[in-house]
Here is the input.
Amino acid sequence: MIIAVLTTVLVGAQEETPNSLQARRMMDTAYERVFGEEGSTLTYHVNIIGIYKTHGTIFFKGKKQRFIDERVDTWNDGVTAYMAYRKKHTVEIHNANSDKKDKHSGKFKFSLDDFSYYVESNPKGYLVTMKQKKGAKGTVKEAKVLLAPVTYAPIKLRIKVAFFWTTIKISDFKSGGINDDMFVFPAEKYAGWKMVDKR
Here is the structure.
C-alpha cells in the first residue's frame, strides 16, 4: 500500500502557472530522489482514518521495492514479488505489478494528469497541494505533500481517497547507494515455509 501512495503523490501533471510549474519541479525532484536509479530508503508510519495503522521501512530503486513492517517482509525485483507473512509462515508469490499482493494498493489509483498543483511555504519546508481535475478517473481526490527545504525530500503525505484521508509520516530518508541485492528474495531463509503462487 505504501508503494502506491508514494507513487501517487510524488508524480504530477503539468499546469501552466508559475506557482504550479514550481510545484511540479519540486515534485519531479522529490520523485527522482525516491524512485531514481540510485534508489532510496525511508521509514514510514501510515494511518488510514485511525482504522488501519502500520509502520515499517521501505527501499526503492526504479521498479524494484523491498519493505518490512510488523507483519510481512516483501521483496519485489521488478518481475516477481514475494510476501513473507511471519505469523502464518507463508510466502505468497505475485506478479510484480499485481494489486492482489496488497489489499490497500488498489485503492490508490491515479493518472499522471489527474491533478492541478499549488505550493506554499511551510515552517518545515514546502506544502504542495494536489487536487484532482474534473473528469479524472483516478481514486485519489486530493493530496497534500510536505517537502523538506532545499532537497525536497518527502516528510509527510496526506491522501484523500473518496471521503477518507490517509496520513503517512516519513523519517530516516536517504537517497542513493541502494544495492540491487536488497531486492532479491532469499529463498533459503524460507525453506520449510508454505509457498503460495498467486501469479
User: Anything to note?
Assistant: The first strand starts at residue 40 and ends at 48. The helical segments are 2-9, 18-35. DSSP finds two helices and twelve strands in the chain.
